[in-house]
Structure formats: structure tokens, C-alpha cells
Write a structure and sequence with these properties.
Elements: H1 2-6, H2 10-66, H3 69-78, E1 85-92, E2 97-102, H4 108-128, E3 143-151, E4 154-163, H5 166-197, H6 199-218, H7 232-294, H8 300-330, E5 339-342, H9 343-361, E6 364-370, E7 377-380, H10 382-398, E8 403-415, E9 418-427, H11 434-438, H12 461-471, E10 475-481, E11 485-496, E12 524-528, H13 532-543, E13 548-552, H14 555-562, E14 571-574, H15 583-591, E15 599-603, H16 608-617, E16 621-624, H17 629-647
Parallel strand pairs: 6-8, 12-13, 12-14, 14-15, 15-16
Antiparallel strand pairs: 1-2, 1-4, 3-4, 5-7, 7-11, 8-9, 9-11, 10-11
Length: 648
């Protein structure tokens, strides 16, 4: 009730409060008047009847003493002139009825009932010496007056007069109706006056509310100064105006600080993008040349050195990717996509492919099982789901010396085309203590932070997994026993596609990729790359599968060669950052004449917004540096095949 009242408008509250106060005061006053009137009227009525009884008892005494009933009847009949008299009964000294008189409108039964009641009251009166009046506060029963009849100070009988309250009732009802009419009229007047007078209090407040609504719309903080008053409202408006001035100053300062923060974020993003590019360029040479060198006949010692260089460079690349991802998440720049994907082929198979080699190196069994009720065709961010899965599997393999890593996928909370996908990654590794678990998902934090720790890493992987999981509406947790192993569990919410094909379960061990290089043999590729080492790496990768490569040292040269009618390229590999003309401008010029030729961005720029910029410029896809030869071959195969099929 109080809550409902507090939600009412100020006008309504004022009207209700003032009206209620007036109603209560008026009701109390009318009730007091009504009660006082009734008491006075009844006392007067009782007094009148008692006086009549006393006077009558004196006149009747002589007749009663001589036994003259007729004379007595005449005397009591004369009392009937009083319209309130119902009956008069005279009792002798021995309590026998001497004479009685009943009003003519009474029936026999009513007379008999009155007579019985009279005798009962007589006995009560004689026994208890009760007062001669009763029912002082009752208006619905008869008045009774019992008076002693005396002669020479000796009681010779009792006079009982019974009077009704008909007249009193009528006057009471008339008074009640009059007071009710007064109350209704008065309340109407009070309500009207209250409605108009409350505006004195409410109008200034509504004026202030109107100003407060206009301030966000037109950013005018001086509107409150328009209201000039000398009362408490005036002080309120002045205080509000002062507060608005302060808010305006604070807003200006916040805008300046926000601009600085945006500039700092932009500078940070630019720095990360540039650093990523600058680091990836030499990394491309290290990973690419070491991979090419490993394909030659080498001594076991030299082969081991090169393998470790390649492996370490890949780890360093993973650290760079983690830092970029964490920075994007921290800056709120990472957005979760909602695209259709196939759970097994787009997520599970690729995650197992990337993780299986390291599992085999450590002789660890890597397996995956999917609950039969898990839909395969889903809607969500397959890339980020795969990233979480790869990170957790890599951690499980890293901290497991022998045994197995088991991935289990199931669902829960399926509602309205949305399911919670729950993934468990269980290992038989070293385990994690409860103290270590508390700081496990914090950035740059690791279970073993000592200088003698056995396992490397930046401590960003699990923090990124946690943030990505939360961005997809879920959460991540871990259960572990020291020396037994750990189980990481994360759940995310994804959509379900309407069309579901039969579930395809991934194999429980290494998934082999069938390489088809027929389409690449003798293919003509234009490589636009200004860095000599990157040219060497790319050329060796391409020549290794029978591709003929033509080099363009900058974007301008790439445009000239691509638009030369004597050259018939099957695809163009386009670097982005080049002298004289960059890859984006070169692609734009080439696309004006060549609509179908595949143009693949091969660059160290790896930010999502940068990838989108390449696509918008007319490139077909993106192959990041350092170059992964498998990804490069697959991209070339796909786009060359697609172009040939489209042409045919």
C-alpha cells in the first residue's frame, strides 16, 4: 500500500493528504457532535419520563390505597397523551397487578410479552434496588421507569411506565442525514480547494522536472536560472542551477579525458598493430626458412637445432597472438560473431589437428567424444570457440607427462533455438592446488610463478579463455587433484540451425588432412612482396608444389604486371605494406579491370578490422605471416578451383 502511494504523482499525493486530513478532522468533529446530541436527547427523554412517573405516582397513591381501579385507570389512561408511552402497569404492595394500560396499537402477544418483561423487571428492581432508568446508551429498546408509590412515607405499590424510542430514533436519523450532507458538501469544497491550492506547491516542482528533462536534450545547463523565487523553492532552484554549472564543467572535463583515453587507445591499437607487423615479418623468415631447411638432408644434430628453432618461433608467435587478443578484449574491441558453422568440421577437427602433433610427441592419447543429442549445425563464433578449445587442450598436453587428454562435449539448458554447449577437457597431468586455482584465470598469472618453474607461457591463455567464454554468455571453471589431473569445464551459449544433418563424430586420434596439389602444379602466381627474405620464403614454398612464381617488388609493379595482357596469372599473393604503392591501393586498381582473379592478402597485419579492410578493398581472403604452408596451399587451391569452375 505504501509502495503504491509512493509511486503516485506529487499532485495526487498532495490532494490525498490534504483531503484525508480534512476528512479525518471533519469526521471526528461530526462524530463528537452526533454523540453529544444523542446523549443529551436521551437524558432529557429519561428525565421527562421519570418526572411523569413521579408525578403520576403521587396522584395514584390515594386511588391505590382505597382500591379504586376505575379512577386509577382513568389516571393512567391520561398518560397515553404522551405519544412515546407504550404501557403503564401498577403493582400492589404484594406485587400483584392492580391495573394496567397498553397502547391500542399493540397486539395481544405484544401485550403479553410486555407484561412478562415488566414482572421480570419488577423482581429485579425489588431484589437489587436498581435505578429506575436503563438502556442509557441503547436507542433500539424501550425506556423503563419504575417508581415507588408511597402514602405517608409507606410504599403501597410500584408504577412501571414503558416508553418507546420511536421519536428519538427519528430525530437521530434526521441528525445523521444532516451531518452526512454537511460532510459530503464540505468534502467537495475541500477537494476543489485542495486541487487548486496544491498547485502552489506542485507547480514549481513540475517546472524543475521539465527543466531537468530538457537539459539532456539540448545540453543547456542554464535553464534552471529562468525560475526566480524567494521561497524555499527559489533556494532549491538556485542549488540546482549551481549543480548544473558544476555538471557542465565536469562534462567538459570528462569529454576531454574521454578524447585523451580514445587517443591513448587508438595509439595503443596502432602500436600493437605496428608491433605485430614488425615482429611477424622477421618471424616469417625464421619459421619459413627453418621449415624449408628441415626438408633438406641434414645431420641429426643440425636437424634438431632447426626443429627447436622452428618450434620456439611458433611458441613466440602464439605469445604474440595472445597479447593481441588480450589487448583487444581489454579495450572492448573484440566482437563475438554469430555465423553458421559445423561443430565437428569447423571446430573439433581443426582443434584436434593443431593439437595432435604435440600429443603424439609426448605419447599422450588425445580423444574426443560428442554426446548424441548435441546438434552439429550451430550459430555462433566458431573461431573463438576453437581458440578456447585449442588453448585448453594445449595446456592439458603441456602439463601432462603421460596418459591421456579427453574432450567431452554435451548440452544443457536447450530453449528457443538456443543451447548451452558444455565442454570438458580432462587430463591426467600434474594437477593444481586450491591456492593456485584462485589466481588461475587472472591475467599474467600462472599456477607456478617461481623462477624455477618447469613450464613456460605468459599466463594470458586462461585469462583469454575466461573472457571469451563470458563474451559468449557462459563461464569457465576447473576441478583438480594434485598428481591426479585436472578437468577444465566451460559452457557457452550458441544458436541451433533449423536444418540439422546427421551428426558427424570426429575421430578419436589424429585427423589427417588429404593434400590435393594437382591444381597448383604449373599454376602461374604473381607474388607482390618487397621484403627479399619474405620473397625467398614464399617462392620456396610455392615452387615446392610446382607453382611458377613471378615477383613484383611493390604495389605499382604488381598493378603493371597484373594488367599486362601477356601475363595470365591464376592468382595474386598481395602484401599490404609496400613502397611506392601499398597492397590495398594496388588491389583497388586491379579490381577495376580484373574482377575474377583471386587476390589473397599475405601480410603480417593480423587484426580483425585490418582483415575486413582487405576484403573491402577487393581481396578474397587473408593468409597471415608467418606463413603456414598448409594454409597457403589450401587457400590457393580453393580460390583457383573456384575461379576455374566459375569460368567454365
Amino acid at each position: 500500500m505504501i509502495k503504491k502511494f509512493s509511486d503516485l504523482s506529487i499532485r495526487t499525493k498532495l490532494v490525498l493528504i490534504l483531503s484525508s486530513t480534512a476528512i479525518i478532522a471533519l469526521s471526528i468533529a461530526c462524530s463528537f457532535i452526533f454523540y453529544t446530541y444523542l446523549i443529551d436527547v436521551k437524558q432529557n427523554e429519561i428525565k421527562t419520563i421519570t418526572q411523569i412517573a413521579n408525578v403520576s405516582s403521587i396522584n395514584i397513591a390515594t386511588s391505590l390505597s382505597f382500591g379504586k381501579k376505575e379512577d386509577t385507570k382513568e389516571m393512567i389512561a391520561s398518560l397515553a397523551d404522551n405519544s412515546s408511552m407504550v404501557a403503564t402497569i401498577i403493582y400492589q404492595e404484594n406485587s400483584e397487578v392492580f391495573v394496567s394500560y397498553f397502547h391500542e396499537h399493540l397486539s395481544v402477544n405484544e401485550k403479553n410479552k410486555l407484561m412478562e418483561n415488566s414482572k421480570a423487571k419488577l423482581r429485579n428492581y425489588q431484589h437489587n434496588n436498581l435505578p429506575s432508568e436503563r438502556n442509557l446508551f441503547s436507542f433500539w429498546e424501550n425506556f423503563d421507569a419504575l417508581v415507588s408509590i408511597k402514602l405517608e412515607n409507606r410504599e403501597i405499590g410500584i408504577l412501571h411506565i414503558i416508553a418507546d424510542t420511536k421519536d428519538l430514533k427519528a430525530r437521530t436519523i434526521n441528525l445523521a442525514c444532516s451531518l452526512l450532507a454537511v460532510i459530503v458538501v464540505t468534502l467537495l469544497i475541500i477537494f476543489i480547494l485542495t486541487y487548486f491550492f496544491q498547485k502552489i506547491f506542485s507547480n514549481p516542482i513540475y517546472a524543475l522536472l521539465s527543466i531537468m528533462k530538457k537539459v539532456p536534450e539540448n545540453r543547456n545547463y542554464s535553464l534552471a536560472k529562468e525560475i526566480q523565487r524567494n521561497d524555499e523553492y527559489g533556494a532549491l532552484f538556485k542549488g540546482f542551477a549551481t549543480m548544473m554549472d558544476e555538471l557542465k564543467t565536469i562534462e567538459k572535463e570528462l569529454i576531454i579525458e574521454k578524447d585523451k583515453a580514445n587517443q591513448a587507445n587508438q595509439t595503443k591499437s596502432n602500436f600493437l598493430a605496428n608491433m605485430s607487423h614488425e615482429i611477424r615479418t622477421p618471424m616469417n623468415a625464421i619459421i619459413g626458412l627453418s621449415e624449408l631447411a628441415l626438408k633438406n638432408d641434414l645431420s641429426s644434430k643440425l636437424h634438431d637445432y632447426l626443429f627447436k628453432i622452428n618450434h620456439s618461433a611458433s611458441d613466440l608467435l602464439g605469445i604474440i597472438n595472445d597479447i593481441l587478443d588480450f589487448s583487444k578484449i581489454e579495450a572492448g574491441m573484440l566482437e563475438i560473431e554469430k555465423k553458421k558453422f559445423h561443430l565437428s568440421s569447423d571446430v573439433i577437427d581443426k582443434a584436434l589437428n593443431l593439437s595432435n602433433e604435440r600429443a603424439l610427441e609426448k605419447n599422450i592419447t588425445l580423444s574426443c567424444s560428442i554426446n548424441p543429442n548435441v546438434p552439429q549445425f550451430l550459430i555462433g563464433d566458431a573461431l573463438r570457440l576453437r581458440q578456447i578449445l585449442i588453448n585448453l587442450i594445449s595446456n592439458a598436453i603441456k602439463f601432462t607427462k603421460h596418459g591421456e587428454v579427453i574432450i567431452t562435449i554435451k548440452t544443457a539448458n536447450t530453449t528457443n533455438k538456443i543451447i548451452e554447449l558444455i565442454v570438458d577437457i580432462q587430463d591426467s597431468g600434474i594437477g593444481i592446488s586450491p591456492e593456485q586455482i584462485k589466481k588461475l584465470f587472472k591475467p599474467f598469472s600462472q599456477a607456478d610463478s617461481s623462477t624455477t618453474r618447469q613450464f613456460g607461457g605468459t599466463g594470458l591463455g586462461l585469462a583469454i579463455c575466461k573472457q571469451l567464454t563470458e563474451l559468449m554468455g557462459g563461464k569457465i571453471s576447473v576441478a583438480s587433484d594434485i598428481g591426479v589431473g585436472s578437468t577444465f569445464t566451460f559452457g557457452i551459449y550458441v544458436g541451433i540451425q533449423d536444418d540439422q544433418s546427421p551428426i558427424i563424430k570426429p575421430s578419436k586420434n589424429k585427423i589427417k588432412i588429404t593434400e590435393k596439389r594437382d591444381v597448383l602444379k604449373n599454376a602461374q602466381i604473381l607474388l607482390a612482396e618487397d621484403n627479399k627474405i619474405n620473397q625467398l620464403v614464399a617462392m620456396e614454398f610455392l615452387k615446392g608444389v610446382g607453382i611458377h612464381v613471378d615477383i613484383a617488388n611493390n604495389g605499382k609493379e604488381a598493378v603493371t604486371k597484373a594488367l599486362n595482357h601477356e601475363n595470365h596469372y591464376d592468382a595474386i599473393l598481395m602484401d599490404v605494406q609496400m613502397p611506392e604503392m601499398d597492397g590495398i591501393e594496388a588491389t583497388t586498381l586491379i579490381r577495376k579491370q580484373l574482377k575474377n582473379i583471386p587476390i589473397i592478402a599475405m601480410t603480417a597485419y593480423a587484426m580483425d578490422e585490418e582483415k575486413q579492410e582487405f576484403i573491402d578493398a577487393g581481396m578474397n581472403t587473408h593468409v597471415p605471416k608467418p606463413i603456414d604452408s598448409k594454409v597457403l596451399y589450401q587457400s590457393l587451391e580453393y580460390w583457383i578451383n573456384k575461379t576455374k569452375n566459375k569460368t567454365s
